[in-house]
Amino acid sequence: MNKSISAQGFTLDKDQTELINKKLERIKYAENLIVDLMIHVKEDKKFFFETTVNFRWGGNAHVTGDDFDFAAALNKMMDVLDVTVTKAKDKVQEKK
Fold this sequence. Notes:
Blueprint: E1 2-8, H1 14-24, E2 34-44, E3 46-55, E4 60-67, H2 70-95
Parallel strand pairs: 1-2
Antiparallel strand pairs: 2-3, 3-4
Helix pairs in contact: 1-2
């Protein structure tokens, strides 16, 4: 899985990057199903997380999360991402 994390409007510090990587461990169960994971963080009064996931079978998903707090916005995005990846994984396994 190739991870790409970028920031707009501010610079990600080491603690924020480590927090993102720690939260991404929630989807470690699907690591072999994901080709690319691109996270874009934007700060404009609120923190906006936009994440695009490209799956190995050619499908993709786009999830977002926002909040005034960095960690809360990340958690919202991760909740949606976890559900999305699980659904995609289950759908592919049903077709086998």
